[in-house]
Amino acid sequence: MAISPDRLEISRLVHRFGFGPKPGEYAALVASGLTAARNTILNPPAVDLGLQSVVDPAPTDLGPFPTPNTPAAVTFAQNMRAQNADLVAWWLDRMVLANNGLTERMTWFWHGHWATAVGKVEYALAMKIQNETLRKYALGNFNQMASTMLQDAALQYWLDGNQNQKGAPNENLARELMELFTLGVGNYSEDDVKALARALTGFSVNRSSAVTTFNPAKHDSSILTILGKSSIFDPQSAVNLLASQDACSNFIANRLWFRFISTSTTAPDSSISTAFSNRDLAATVKVVATHSAMKDPLNSQVKSPVEWFVSVAKALKITPSKLQNRAQVTNYLDKLAQVPFAPPNVGGWPYDEAWLNAASAQYRLAFADFLIKQGDLSPIINGTGDPFQQLADWLGIAEWSSRTKQVLRTVSGDPARTTLIAICSPEYVVNG
Amino acid sequence: MDTISRRKFLQLTGASAIGATATQLSISDIAKAAVTRPLPLGTPIVVVVTLYGGNDGLNTVVPFNDPIYKSSRPDILLKDTQVLPIGEDLGLNATMTGFKSLWDQKKLAIVRGVGYPSPDRSHFSSMAIWQSASPKAHVSSGWIGRWLDSQQHDPFQAIGLGSVLPPLLAGVKQVGSVLPLGGLVIPTGSLATDCKRLSLPSNSDSRLQAAAAVSMKDLFSISSTVTPILKRPAPIPDNLPSNVGGNFGSDSSLSQQLDVVAKLVAAGSPTKVWAVSLGGFDTHADEVKAQSALLGTVSNSITRFLSQIHATNRANDVVVMVYSEFGRRVKANASHGTDHGTSGPVFLAGNRINGGFYGDQPALTAQISGDLAVTTDFRNIYGSVIEDVLSTPVGQVISGWSSKLPLIKGF
Description:
The structure holds two protein chains of two kinds. By secondary structure, chain A is mainly alpha-helical. In chain A, the strands form three sheets. A two-stranded antiparallel sheet of chain A has the order 1-2. In chain A, helix 18 runs antiparallel to helix 22. Chain A starts with a helix and ends with a strand. By secondary structure, chain B is an alpha/beta fold. Chain B has a domain of 282 residues: Alkaline Phosphatase, subunit A, CATH 3.40.720. Chain B contains 13 helices and 13 strands. In chain B, the strands form two sheets. In chain B, strands 1, 2, 6, 7, 8, 9, 10, 11, 12 and 13 form a ten-stranded mixed sheet that branches. Chain B is globular, with a radius of gyration of 21 Å.
């Protein structure tokens, strides 16, 4: 039987732009029709009531590292670990509990884009502030996001911006700003990197308080030429210049295409980059989500480990921070190679096939078993009617394969095993 | 950023799309192949070691007496007491005691000033150039992949350690295989039965859903009769110089990868090219400690690997090559680190290697905008490996190649 095109597209919408459905949500979206489903998914409410129960961990300034091998150092390390664990749990809770998942999903995308890792930054406060910035602008204005990120303490520290001083530039931030954050390879020269590094000099970062300070006396205010424009730049005017380039429109459009539609094809038209031309991210994301490629059966995408976990938690009504032995969540995510706030490098997370290997299959099974033991399986325990349809509707799957149906049939009396097979099936691990 | 890994590179080059057609071999597949059709003794084997992030060549093979070296990087300077002199006023980073002993045994070649015309300082672009061996035109195939194209099809011929295919193993017609690391716990009982059924192909699967099913199948294809090869201890090094004994048994991922390679080479896996890697060389800040630790890992892991191989009957077969996507700027930055640069040294090690220096050390008096000149084109090293190790005409694999280097001994 051919898959209903609307079921497939709505499954993609709800997973890719919202971390998957809560129980009952997918069937309701399908019943409402594609247009209404798009409207629901793509228009988050001003206040999301689902988030009211999420407690802000409010990490504090832990101050500088104490002298090693002192009692103070032990307390400090414990506090730092606890703050970082709370931060991860807080964000996972938000992803799972938001009634509309779009804002958290876009925040997640931008975290991978401006990929900053706690491994180097260390302090939860700085990571939290960056996360709030990404959330604030996730569906806002890209130029404002870029401007704010330029002064973000975590990003500055991560890319050695605090070490980039007049007379002794450090190019790390300048290069990645052009290559990975705004323009993409091939849209700037080596001289542009050197000049931009000079234009970005003068910042200092207090890592524990997450305060970035610009000191004009340490800024190189020579006349510099960046992307053909000669001027005395301050860091803001330099980043504005990058964000206003046409190359930036194409680059961000390509990144959105890559992460939301397909990693193996490129956009066949310029609709996304055109939508991005005024840097309005909400409007641009709508163009991505309503692109005709969303219907194309070829454009399946693998759920990354966090995306898989959040979709499972939503279906099973699990609040990550309330799980017994919640540290296991981070352990499993670490085994699957994706922990929030800890991207492997500034290029962000891998994609698709990278998440599919024997080891990840094994850890996914073990993780699923852990979650099912604490999850709410009532949608299939109490369900009536066609069990395949119920299961597909619960999890937001367009259609089961004959292979998976056959396995599900053999385990039909066992809700836990049924759920395990369903959430570890190729149809669930890979979104249509 | 403190770590540049292959993932970052793979992500941006789209290499894992190529990887879709790569065979994911299970350890048992390889072990079976080793049992049923072992690589004939005397067949040369290449182990390619990729250092991700851009290794600072000047603090690896150090011109420790050069006044310009001293004045360019006073804060990250390695003094004469911090290097192991190897002649021509050069010294190895003092952590590289293993490489020094290989050098003394004339089993280590150091090719100096290696790069390509018009160096690209993007990690991703430059690594793509090194892995494709195509500095000008963008080519999506890798140099070992094109060598595979010239061979009869055999999924065991070239294997990358890890879960994603490195682009150097992707050919036009054929691709190498990947071997994920890490111990696996296989489900048992009825769960195993269910999961095996779940791993069957279905004609409604998308390309990626089919790959997901294969990954589950792979989990089960490790049978109890063949996994013992990997459970066996690695070959015991028989000629390990005592002065490099201290740091072995580290759990660094490079030594883990090479341990697996050593076991499978010893078992006779019909594999002629292995690809392993180590990340973390992007030392924009506080370079000395970080880079020295990494170079110690490289030197110790490879020296131990060669000693393990020495304990087998394939000691004369294995050649190890070590490269990174670029060297770093001559002048230190203000963060006790260095920014992206141009040329750097390439190492080749093994009994088959004519030890010694190749290529000119780029003169610090002749910098190009603060960067080292390129004195040796990397394709000339590849040419030597393709022709003198893998016995394949270079022209089929690499274009823009000018001459080989006499790196490889005949046997």
